[in-house]
Structures are given as structure tokens and as C-alpha cells.
Write the C-alpha cells for this entry.
Amino acid sequence: MKVMKFGGTSVGSPERMKGVASLVTESGEPTFVVLSAMSGTTNSLVEISDYLYKKNPEGANEVINKLEAKYMQHVEELYSKEETKKATREFLAGEFDYLRSFTKDLFTSFEEKSIVAQGEIMSTNMVVNYLNEIGVKAVLLNALDFMRTDKNAEPDTQYIKEKLHDVMEANTGYQIYITQGFICRNAYGEVDNLQRGGSDYTASLIGAALPAEEIQIWTDIDGMHNNDPRIVEKTEAVRQLNFEEAAELAYFGAKILHPTCVQPAKYAGIPVRLKYTMDPKADGTIIDNVIVRGKIKAVAAKDNITAIKIKSSRMLLATGFLRKVFEIFESYQTPIDMITTSEVGVSMSIDNDSHLNEIVDELKKYGTVTVDSNMCIVCVVGDLDWSNLGFETIATDAMKNIPVRMISYGGSNYNISFLIREADKKQALQNLSKVLFNK
Ligand SMILES: Nc1ncnc2c1ncn2[C@@H]1O[C@H](COP(=O)(O)OP(=O)(O)O)[C@@H](O)[C@H]1O
Ligand SMILES: N[C@@H](CC(=O)OP(=O)(O)O)C(=O)O
């Protein structure tokens, strides 16, 4: 069985939902479909929650009313039978009443999780109703029945596997199995989610649990591009990536893939295919185990990075210095992205500065600390094995007019990263496209 995941834009209008219906039924084979919320909906649900946190029920109601009017219009355009329209209208009216019910009570992050879950609940109901209307044997599986995280907020893969098998066994004989991306329960049984953009992760976890023969991520672009298409003109789709290359690109800013999505597929050995919903014949990108030697594949960039340097003569010839430094970051649950060292200092980058002041205060006990904010990591991905003569030189050459704060090479065979100012990002990405891909 294949898993096909469709992102927000791919289910973003009644027309697109009809397109999804034809894509998932094309093969005639049983298929597992994961859907995101219609594009813009999760943002609206977050906006509603923000109003409720600020004790502004009028603001929340205004957004709810607007959203409801939009969804009711979608119903008119999506279905042709009056009975499907009526059933879907009633279902959606219940959803919006549910959202309104939060405007009356105390509001916490628990309520917020329930609110943001409704986008996927609505889109999946709408699509399954459409499939049934056109005579396809489709069933909606509630992700909250089998998607769960553990006490560390990591997916509970064993639980997911067992529960999903039970659910599939109880629903044999369907052509299309649909479920919600993004949403799950946590270890305490409460409604939770896999973080923004997490529907890709759902698809990959389900693909590994089934197991599927392939996980397809259908989106609004024809695959992973060799540079960020939102910033650089003339980017091109990369036809193949290995799992490590894809994971590096996703982690370092290629928004097309959720950073965590590659891992379950990689461990289960299931290829991931990125496909273009608006042009299904386009090749897309295949992500698998194949390693292509001697090729730099793509570039990505990640913003909002802070660089921290600690300089200390105590580091000279000392053992245990780095451990002490890392323990400070660990105690504030702040992961380090990049690291470079010299005999008397160490520079690190972080993407979460919520405990920056505390970290800096503690680091000051060991040496002089400097902080650079508004930085950005530019990451070049491909076969960057150290035996490839001159590959790192090509990348550094592209940076010759840009102040570079840190360079990291040799941590993996697939990446060389530069820490630069956010203000220089566009120039750096353009330079890299020119040097690496002749664009
Ligand atoms: N290297 C890249 N290759 C392809 N798309 C990228 C890349 N970097 C950023 N993107 C952006 O990712 C977007 C698709 O991701 P996303 O909006 O999350 O899709 P969906 O809503 O379908 O999940 C594209 O429209 C594109 O602008
Ligand atoms: N709807 C959620 C989950 C998601 O993955 O969406 P998308 O597939 O459109 O990135 C979000 O907006 O974060």
C-alpha cells in the first residue's frame, strides 16, 4: 500500500479537493491518504487561540464567523448532491459551534491544542464525504485513535504500529483510507500535535507502521529544489536525494519537508517521493538509500540563529571543558546546531534563544562570552566526503564577498555549513547557485 500525503495548498479549495480525489483513486489500489488542513486554516485557528489567550472573545468570534462563511461556501462548490451538502453543513456547523464554546471559558494551551486540531478534522471529513458522494469506497480513520506521543513528546512508534494495525483490521475492504496529519494524543491522552508542518511526519510514521511500499508527499512544487525558490530565481528540482541529504536540507530550512519526516522512513527503508499536486506527471524527487558520488545536490538556509562564543585560557590543554559547556545548554534544553573549536575558545549556534540570558550567565563563569544575533546557517548538501578534492573550496569560494562567522565541515559526509548574517543570506544563496549550479 502507498501512503499519499497532501499539504495545505493541495487541499486548499474545493477544486483542489476534487483533484486529490482523482489522484488517490487513479491507481485503483488500496491507498492510505494523509491530509493537512486547508491552507490558511491552521493559521486562523492559531489566531483564534491568540485572541482567547488575550481574553478577547469578540476578536475570536470574528475570525470564527469569517472562517465558517468560507467553509459553508466550499460545501456549495464541492458537492453536487443535496444530501451530502446537508450532512457536511451540519458537521461543519458543529465544528464551528465547538470553536465558539471556547470563547466562554478559561483558556490554556490544552484548549489551544484542541482548537488547532480542527483544521485537519474538517478537511478530512470534507474529502471523505466527497469520495463517498462520487461512489468511492473510502473510510475516515481518526488519527486520535492511533497517533500518540510518549512522555518525551516523541512519537510512540510501537503504540502507533499496534493501534494502526487494529484500526486497519477493523476496516478491511476499503479502497481509500483517510486520516488527519499533524494531530495526535500525548502520553496523557490529551489532544496534541506534531508541531507546525507535522503532517509530513504523520505520513512518514504511518508509512513505517503499515509498512507502506512508498510514502508520497504531494505539495505545491515539483520536488526538492536545489536552492530556496522563495529567495533565489532559477532554482531546479533535484531528482534524487539520499535520506541523509534530505534530512540535512529539511533541518536546515528547505520548508518542503518537515525536518523529522525523513527519520521513520529511513529506518524502515521506505522511499519518500515528493510530488507536485498541480502537475502530477512531473518527476518530483525520490528520497532513498542510493548514494550518488561526487555530486553537490542543493543548498538551504535557516534563519533566527544566535551564535555564542566562549573564550577561555582555562580551555588550553584542559579536559572536561567542553563537557561543562555542553551541560549548560543541556540543562536549558537548548540544542546546539553548529560548533567550531580552537584551543582557547568554542563557538556554537542555537535556533532557540528562549534561555539565552541564563545560558550566557552560566557560561560567563568559565570565560569571556560574546553573542551574535540575527544570524543564519547556510548549508550545502551532497557528497561532501573529505576524499572529494576541492569540494569545500567551491562552496567557500562562493562566500568570498560575505563575512562568515563560522564554518562547519566534516561532521557528516553530506554537508558543509556556514554561519553568516541574516542580512547576507540572499546574496550567499545567489552566489552558491551561480557557483554550484551555473544559475
Ligand atoms: N529547497 C526547496 N525546494 C522546494 N520547495 C521549497 C524549498 N525551500 C522552501 N520551499 C518551499 O516549500 C513550499 C512547500 O512546503 P509547504 O508550504 O509546507 O507545503 P505543504 O503545505 O504542501 O505541506 C514550497 O512552496 C516552497 O516555497
Ligand atoms: N496544518 C498544519 C500541519 C501541516 O503539516 O500543514 P502543511 O502540510 O500545509 O505544511 C500546519 O499548518 O502546520
Notes: The mean pLDDT is 95. The chain is about 40% helix and 20% strand. The pocket of aspartyl phosphate (ligand 2) is lined by residues 7-8, 36-37, 42, 119, 181-182, 196-199 (CB under 6 Å).
